[in-house]
Write a structure and sequence with these properties.
Strand content: 15-25%
Number of helices: 8
Helix content: 40-55%
Order of helices and strands: EHEHEHEHEHEHHH
Shape: globular
Largest sheet: 6 strands, parallel
Strand order of the largest sheet: 3-2-1-4-5-6
Radius of gyration: 16 Å
Length: 197
């Protein structure tokens, strides 16, 4: 029940690494390779990405991570749905990724609503469309919708370079998470989310 969701406490500790998590399919429509190429171009002491899932592209992705020494990126097998909460809790931001193709502009992955109702901010990378519209309306994360890889890398660098201290990061993560919950509570109900799954 969305109205009974309890927020997790703010992150604590002195670790300044920003932890990103992607859980889901590793197929052509997600284009996770682009996500990897974006994150590998950011200081590996600042950001870490964990990818959990299965799909047609998994072997290719694992090889790319290994061959390019992407020390801040890891890939792991899928986990049971009821175990996702534990992984969500450990992350600062959760990633929603779609192939940057206009054909996917009206597609809304159900995980978007899972993430928002859980109270975690979203990083969306994909075409401008329904997903970016929801995130912007809710003010629950950032949307990376530029056309070129270079532009996407620059946008995410600009965003995360603002976090010079952990307190700033924790406050931003907390506030964006609350915004996501408020949007779900105001605009959706359990039945409408279930229809999207």
């Amino acid at each position: 029940n969305i109205k009974s969701i309890k927020l997790f406490p703010k992150a604590t500790g002195d670790d300044r690494t920003i932890k990103l998590l992607y859980i889901g399919n590793l197929g052509l429509s997600q284009d996770i390779l682009e996500l990897i190429q974006i994150i590998e171009n950011i200081d590996d002491k600042k950001i870490q990405l964990k990818i959990i899932g299965e799909g047609a592209e998994k072997e290719k992705l694992a090889e790319y991570i290994y061959n390019n020494n992407c020390n801040n990126i890891s890939i792991a097998p899928p986990i049971q749905y009821d175990k996702r909460g534990l992984m969500y809790r450990k992350a600062d931001y959760l990633v929603v990724k779609l192939k940057s193709d206009i054909a996917y502009s009206n597609f809304i992955p159900s995980k978007l609503f899972d993430i928002m109702s859980f109270g975690k901010p979203v990083i969306y990378i994909g075409p401008k469309g329904e997903v970016s519209k929801i995130i912007n309306e809710a003010n629950c994360g950032i949307t990376i919708t530029e056309k070129t890889l270079k532009e996407k890398i620059e946008q995410i660098k600009i965003y995360f370079n603002r976090f010079e201290c952990n307190d700033f990061l924790r406050d931003e993560v907390y506030e964006l998470g609350i915004n996501g919950i408020n949007y779900i509570d105001k605009n959706m109900n359990d039945n409408s989310i279930e229809l999207l799954k």
